[in-house]
Amino acid sequence: MSTSTEQLSEQLAATTLLRFATAGSVDDGKSTLVGRLLHDSKSVLADQLEAVEHASRSRGQAAPDLALLTDGLRAEREQGITIDVAYRYFATPRRRFILADTPGHVQYTRNMVTGASTAELAVVLVDARNGVVEQTRRHAAVAALLRVPHVVLAVNKMDLVDYREPVFAAIAEEFTTYASELGVPEITAIPISALAGDNVVEPSANMDWYGGPTVLEHLETVPVSHDLRACHARFPVQYVIRPQTAEHPDYRGYAGQIAAGAFRVGEQVTVLPSGRTSTITGIDALGESVDIAWAPQSVTIRLADDIDISRGDLLAPSGDAPATTQDIEATVCHVADHPLAVGQRVLLKHTTRTVKAIVKEIPSRLTLDDLSQHPNPGQLVANDIGRVVVRTAEPLALDAYADSRRTGSFLLIDPADGTTLAAGMAGESFATAKAVAVVADEEGWDF
Question: Rounded to whole angstroms, how far apart are CA atoms 175 and 185?
Answer without folding.
Answer: 13
